[in-house]
């Protein structure tokens, strides 16, 4: 693929869908679904930006080659339809992450994001920043977002500490995707951010709390299928209609709590999205296992009872 001009540095705001990776029943990447997937997000859910190859997309379970192919296809098919395509390039191998970052720059993504390596774990903010810096340097003109997900990585360094002086290490730094319950840490990321940086919240069940603290947007798995309701929540919040905003937030909380009690993971979430959108997303990849039919039925039923307009 030919080298494209550096991505325009536009602020990333609003809802960003953390995309699922469509697989065939044989477990291979299924690119034929990406076009209809983009139409579903933009036309049915009103969600215009995507976060590809992240947790929801099982990025860490995909090969480097598969991740490149997916990133290219989302960029190609999203042209003129999506506002921004952010590609997660984090890996446990620094070299692989740099290769993905360089590739992302070549195909003209709007941003890259990197999670902390989680086998050999950075022991402090300085070590983590050094890793992020080395990856970012492989794509110096591409907006960079630190992906904070301590519950999965086991790297328990506050995001605020990672952000300390980050612009001197990573001139392309533009924001943090903060997935965690620690609202104090997230608030401090908001308060230390420059006006051209963003904080994107990754706990869909607490988006309203994030908005109160000043986040600029949100990256999440559920925006794939509740995007239009959560867009209504954002509008209600902006209009100071907290009663309406809470009403929508409470529905999503109820759905996620219900799902969690039954055993919610990316495989289950992927199946729910497939049921609601009609897209053939296929099974998850091992070690995740396919969602049982009865669980999918229960969740779909619960979804329709909470969001009846979708039926
Ligand atoms: C740990 C996890 O998967 N968190 C989700 C949330 O959207 C999450 O599914 C939701 O808040 C329900 O708990 C996102 O933050 C993940 C995400 O953005 C990604 O796929 O990279």
Automatic annotation (TrEMBL):
It is found in: Cytoplasm. The lineage of its organism: Eukaryota, Metazoa, Chordata, Craniata, Vertebrata. GO terms for molecular function: N-acetylneuraminate lyase activity. Pyruvate binds at residues 56, 219. Its EC number is 4.1.3.3. Keywords: Carbohydrate metabolism, Cytoplasm, Lyase, Schiff base. The keyword Cytoplasm applies. This is N-acetylneuraminate lyase. PANTHER family: DIHYDRODIPICOLINATE SYNTHASE, N-ACETYLNEURAMINATE LYASE.
